[in-house]
TrEMBL record:
Keywords: Membrane, Transmembrane, Transmembrane helix, Transport. PANTHER family: PURINE PERMEASE C1399.01C-RELATED, PURINE PERMEASE YWDJ-RELATED. It is found in: Membrane. It comes from Dehalobacterium formicoaceticum. The chain crosses the membrane at residues 12-38, 50-70, 77-95, 101-120, 132-151, 163-180, 189-211, 231-252, 273-295, 307-326, 338-361, 373-396, 403-423. Its main location: membrane. It is a multi-pass membrane protein. This is Purine/pyrimidine permease. It comes from the Bacteria. Belongs to the nucleobase:cation symporter-2 (NCS2) (TC 2.A.40) family.
Length: 426
């Protein structure tokens, strides 16, 4: 494929800004969606949730800039890792300091594995059916959280009304995805879904955006930073397994763009990229926000624009950091109804499942009945654990609850046992 601007080309300043704004329009909805979910899980006042989003915008912006200048040095979107939502949701009740510490330690371990070359040995665990299962597990184990977002009520709005609205909006999203030609509009579909969906929802149900009166926190998220080191072995193990999945996502994203652009020195780019992903997650933990990862949707954007220059993401990174210091703008974006967030998450997770199925069925050795058994048990166990009632979970030993009570962790452990021990291919 021939590109208008290659990897190391620098477009004229106005074109550079225009392309950067396009990347920004794609990145912002993802940050808002994941950030709102995590901020909602941890609770807190509306001002604290705005503060969380400010920190997340800043961390993602810095991560983006560092990766394109010093890491993999390719046009790859960086965003909050959805897989870590699973560990964060399963670790509630153990304290924010335990979660932050687990992200810091897990990020540091990932960075050390990548920098020392040990990560290459771990890659042997990631067979096609393991990777496929992990991709699908992320979607399935987030289902309870998505369901809560869709059915949560405000005022006189009933869960049934929210559910009907969500289903109709979903049909509209998939119809738009089918009808839109590849390009700017399709690449920024999530942005328009959030904007138009929120407007329609507010018109139907009479809701209104709320922007806090006191948002005098333009630089406050620096001054209010604090970190308390606190380790819980069960929570840490849960995060380590989620970081295993995060590394799979990171590796796949870097390699997919590298293959598309026929980039040289890919081994070095992979090593630098994953090492920095680990270190940037350490920074995310110190800032008290969810960690970051390279996103796999970048090749579609590059193909639709014909622009492969990594420098087009510099304005994107700077724009994210500027938004972090605009609490009024963050408050406005953060006031999106939860049903819209939940519905867009369903769409994102459907893409995740599609990627998993493609990985499974396009494997070189084909897809056999045993492959279905390996994946099937892991998926069934993860669903059962994810939907366990709270009164059952509290009967688990406290130190095992973050592991055995986490559907994703149970699913990953079971697929590794099934793939590498019970149904090991000779």
């Amino acid at each position: 494929m021939k590109f208008k601007y290659g990897l190391e080309d620098k477009p004229p300043i106005f074109q550079l800004i225009a392309f950067g704004l396009q990347w920004l329009a794609i990145t912002v909805p993802i940050i808002i969606i994941v950030g709102k979910i995590v901020a909602g899980i941890s609770g807190g006042s509306s001002e604290e949730q705005i503060l969380y989003l400010q920190r997340l915008f800043f961390v993602v912006g810095v991560s983006q800039l560092v990766q394109i200048l010093f890491g993999h040095r390719m046009p790859l979107i960086v965003g909050p890792a959805t897989v870590l939502l699973v560990a964060i949701g399963a670790s509630q009740g153990f304290g924010q300091s335990v979660i932050d510490t687990s992200i810091v330690i897990s990020g540091l371990i990932l960075a050390l594995l990548a920098a020392t070359g040990l990560f290459a040995r771990l890659r042997q665990l990631f067979t096609p059916r393991v990777v496929a299962t992990i991709l699908i597990l992320i979607a399935f184990t987030l289902t309870p959280m998505i369901l809560n977002l869709i059915t949560s009520t405000f005022g006189t709005i009933s869960p049934f009304e929210n559910l009907v609205f969500s289903l109709l909006l979903l049909l509209g999203i998939f119809a738009a995805n089918k009808l839109l030609a590849p390009g700017f509009w399709k690449s920024t579909l999530l942005l328009w879904v959030i904007i138009l969906g929120s407007i329609i929802y507010l018109l139907i149900f009479g809701e209104h955006f709320y922007i806090g009166e006191d948002t005098k926190i333009i630089a406050g998220f620096f001054h209010s930073l604090s970190f308390d080191f606190s380790v819980n072995p069960g929570v840490l193990l849960s995060f380590l397994i989620c970081f295993l999945a995060l590394s799979v996502n990171d590796l796949g994203s870097i390699q997919s763009v590298g293959a598309m652009l026929h980039t040289d020195h890919m081994e070095k780019r992979v090593t630098r990229g994953i090492t920095l992903t680990g270190l940037l997650n350490v920074g995310a933990g110190l800032f008290g926000v969810v960690g970051t990862v390279n996103f796999s949707l970048s090749p579609g954007v590059i193909a639709s624009t014909g622009v492969a220059s990594r420098f087009t993401l510099v304005p994107t990174a700077l724009g994210l950091m500027i938004l972090a210091f605009l609490p009024k703008a963050i408050a406005f974006m953060g006031s999106i109804p939860s049903v819209i967030i939940g519905t867009t998450m369903i769409y994102i997770m459907c893409s995740q499942i599609a990627a998993g199925l493609m990985t499974a069925f396009h494997a070189q050795e084909g897809f056999a009945f045993e492959d279905g058994l390996v994946m099937g048990l892991s998926l069934m166990l993860s669903i059962l654990i994810s939907f366990l009632p709270q009164d059952v979970l509290i009967t688990f030993p406290l130190f095992l609850r973050p592991v055995l009570g986490n559907g994703f962790v149970v699913g990953v452990i079971s697929v590794l046992i099934m793939d590498h021990i019970i149904f090991r291919k000779k």
